[in-house]
Amino acid sequence: MDLKEIASISGKGGLFKIVKPTRSGVILESLGENKAKIVASSNNRISILQEISIYTTDAEGSVPLANVFKTIKEEFGDDPGVNSSSSSEELKAFLKHVLPEYDESRVYVSDIKKIVSWYKIIYNYVPEILEQETEEK
Question: What is the pTM assigned to this prediction?
Answer without folding.
Answer: 0.90
